[in-house]
Amino acid sequence: MVKKILFTLIAVGLLSATSGLGGLAVFTDQAAVDGNTFTTGTIEISTNPTTALVTFSDMAPGDEVTAPLTVTNDSTTLELRYSVTSLATNTDTKDLRAQLDLTIKEDVTTCTTAGFDTDGTILYDPADLGGDPAINVIGDPTQGAQAGDRVLAASANEVLCFNVELPLTTGDAFQDATTTATFTFDAEQTINNP
């Protein structure tokens, strides 16, 4: 019986030694895949002019002012969509902002007061110049695609034509009134943003 135990121990020892040697005899190699760089794109919107787009001093009923504004996607990588809001504040209690009519068009051949009515497509119907809080005049700044939002490809631009009119029906209550409007252009990426 001692021989049997001794033989079993020798067999186990030989198997252990062989498996250990087998593990040392394995060839190995390795390959690395480096340089996995990721860069995000950008969106960047700008306007020209950046201030005092449409202004008029000493307006009388029937007067209007018209001016072009260029909207540019300064990004070279990503398409964007944008909306426009108008915040108009009064310096008095006369609420001139609700009296003044704003119209915004695209594709106007000659963006002047004389040329404004000859062609182009209306983006914002003649309606209030603005509000406080701001009102949506083109699209909607809520994230995602909204009705009326404008889309610009990377490095693209478009010209919008703004017209503000003091209607002939404006009464005496609006004499010596002042309002100031701020047009805000909100942009967001279109890719992966339905």
- For the terminal residues, how far apart are their CA atoms? 82 Å
Strand order of the largest sheet: 1-2-8-4-5
List the helices and strands in order.
Answer: HEEEHEEEEEE
Radius of gyration: 35 Å
- Number of continuous helical runs: 2
Total strands: the figure is 9
Give the mean pLDDT. Answer: 91
Question: How is this structure best described in words?
Answer:
This protein has 194 residues and is α+β, with helices and mostly antiparallel strands. It has a single domain, classed as Immunoglobulin-like (Sandwich). 14% of the residues lie in helices and 34% in strands. It has helices at residues 2-24, 96-99, and strands spanning 45-48, 64-73, 80-90, 101-106, 121-128, 135-138, 150-152, 157-165, 179-189. The protein has a five-stranded antiparallel beta sheet with strand order 1-2-8-4-5. Strands 3, 6, 7 and 9 form a four-stranded antiparallel beta sheet that branches. The longest helix has 23 residues, at 2-24. The chain is elongated and about 115 Å long. The model has no long low-confidence stretch (mean pLDDT 91).
